[in-house]
Amino acid sequence: MKGSLIAPLFFLAVALACLGSRLGAVAPWAAAAVSLAAAAWAGTEVRRAITWFSLPVLAYGALIVLNTLLLSPAYTPAGLYQPLLLIGAFAAARSLTEHAERAAARAVLGLGLVLAAWGLVQIGPLGMARAQAVFETPATYAAFLNLLLVPVTAAVLLGKRGVPLFSVALALAAAVFAADSRGGLLALTAGFGVAAIFAMRATQLRARSVGVALGLLAAGWIAAAALRTLPSPETEATPSVSARAESSLSRLELYALSWNAWRERPLVGTGYLTFRYALEQGRSKVPSYGEANETWLVHNDYLQTLQELGPLGLLAFLGMTLLPLLLAWRKLPSLAHGQELPVVAATAALAAMSVHALVDFPFYIPACLLLYGASLGALERRLGGQAALPAWRPRPWHRPLRAAALAIAALIMLRPLVAEAAAEWGLRQSAAGESQSAAFWLGAAQRLDPAEWRYHWYSGQFWDAQAGQSGKREAARLAAEAYAAGFAANSLEVRNLLGKISVHRRHRALLDSPADSRTLQDWLAQANALAPLNPAVLREVAR
C-alpha cells in the first residue's frame, strides 16, 4: 500500500520544487521537503548505513546551514531549505527499492513531459524567443530538463529501445533546444559524452546506439526549429550574436567581482547568497549590468561557492561533484548485471549539471538540487554500500539527544515558514485597508524571524505610510524602529538604511529624537558605500 504512494509523492515534491524555484518562497520548499520525507517513508524497506559516499553531500549541506545561521552577515531562509531539499532527495532516493525507484522515475519523467510541452507551446503558438515554462530563466529550464534527458539518452546508448522511450527523448530534446541556452547545450553535450564513455567502460556501447541517440537529439532540434516558424500573435526576436557576446563578457565581469569579494574574506567566505551585495557595492566594475539590473548569482557555481562558503565549502562541493564520477568509473566493470544502466544514467546526469555549473547556476535552483540529490542517492545505493562508516555504539543518552536535536532542527525550519505566512497575510491586510490587522501580522513576522531583513522592511513601509497619512507620532517612531532593526539584521542591504534616512528626513516633526544633519550625512555616506550606483541612493544623495 505504501509503495503506491511513491510516484505521486515524488511528482508532488518535484512540482513544488519547480514552483519554489520560480517564486523563491519558503512554503513550496517546505512542502517539497515534506513530500520527500513521505516518499522515503513509503518506499523504504531497509535501513541503510551512512557511507563515505554520503560525506560530501552531508558536509556541503551542513556548511551552508552553519554559514547561514552563524557566519553570514545576510541571513536567508534559502540557506536552510535548499540544502534540505538536496539532502532530503538524497536520503529518499537511497532508501528506495528498485521497484519504487522506477515508479518515482516515471513520475518525474511525466512532470518533465508536461514542462517540455509547456516550453514548446511558448516558442510555437505563443511566439516567445526562448522557452522557460514555469522557471525564471531559460538556462534554469534547460538545466532541469537535462537532468531528465541525459539519463534517457544514456538508456538509448546502452541499447534500450521502444516507442515510449524514443518519444520521451524526442520531447525533452526539443524542449532543451527550445530553451536555447548555451549552458544547457554545453551540459547536454557533456552528459552525452560521459554517458557514451561510461557505456564503453561497461562494454555495452554499440555504434548503432550512438547513431540512434544522436538521431533523436537531431530530431528534437528540428522540431524546435519548426515550432519557431509557426505563426503567432507576437513573435519575439531571438538574441543576436552581439547580444550573446555581451552576455558572455558580462559574466567575465561577474567572475572578477566574485573573486575579489572572496579575497576580502578568504577563510569563511562572504556568506551564502551574498553575491548580490558584492554586485551592489562594485557595480562600476560590471558596467554591462548598469544601475538597476540585479542578480544573486555569479553564473559559475564553483566560484560562487568559494566566495560565499570559503575553501571548505568549495572542497565539499568538489567532493559532491567529482567523487561520484570517480567511484562510478572505478566500480563500473565489477557491477552486478543489470546495474550498469542506472549507474551510467545517474553519473551522466550528475556530470551534465556539474559542467553546466561552470557557466550558470543550477546548484542554486531548488528543483535542480532536488533532482541532483536524487541522482546521487540512486548512485550511492549501488556504489557506496560496501563502504559504511563505523556505527556508533548505542548509549542510553543517544535517544533523548537525538530527539532534542530533531526538535531544534524542526523549530529552525518552521520559524521562517510561519514568519513568511504572517508577513504575506499582513501585506494582504494592508492592501485591503485593514490597518490594525496588518500591523499585528507584520509585527508577528518581525518577531518570529528577526534575522530576516525583509519583514522589518515591510513593517517599516507600512508604518511609514501610516505616519504620512495620519501624522501620528507613534507611527513615525515604529517606522524608524522597524527600518533600524532591518538594517541591524542585515547590514549589507541598503533598503532599510534608505528607509531610516527617509523617515528621519520627512517625519522629523513627529520623532522625539530625530537624527541631526551630521548623522543623516553619515548614514547617507554608508548607503553610498553599500550601493553607489543604486538609483534610490542617487536620488537621496541628490536631495
Overview of the molecule:
- The chain is an all-alpha fold and 543 residues long.
- The chain has two domains: 2-383, no CATH class; 399-542, Tetratricopeptide repeat domain (Serine Threonine Protein Phosphatase 5, Tetratricopeptide repeat), CATH 1.25.40.10.
- The chain is built from 21 helices and no strands.
- It has helices at 6-23, 26-43, 55-71, 78-94, 98-123, 138-157, 163-179, 182-201, 207-228, 241-264, 275-281, 301-331, 340-356, 366-383, 398-431, 435-448, 453-470, 473-489, 494-506, 517-530, 535-542.
- Helix 1 crosses helix 14 (366-383) and helix 19 runs antiparallel to helix 20 (517-530).
- The longest helix is centred in the C-terminal third of the chain and has 34 residues, at 398-431.
- The chain is globular and about 80 Å long.
- It starts with 5 loop residues before the first helix and ends with a helix.
- 50% of the residues are buried.
- The model has no long low-confidence stretch (mean pLDDT 91).
Helix content: over 70%
| Overall average pLDDT | 91
Order of helices and strands: HHHHHHHHHHHHHHHHHHHHH
How many helical stretches? 21
For the largest beta-sheet, the strand count, sense and barrel status come to: none
Assign the structural class, choosing from mainly alpha, mainly beta, alpha/beta, alpha+beta, or little secondary structure. Answer: mainly alpha
As a percent range, the share of strand residues is under 5%
Poorly predicted runs of 5 or more residues: none
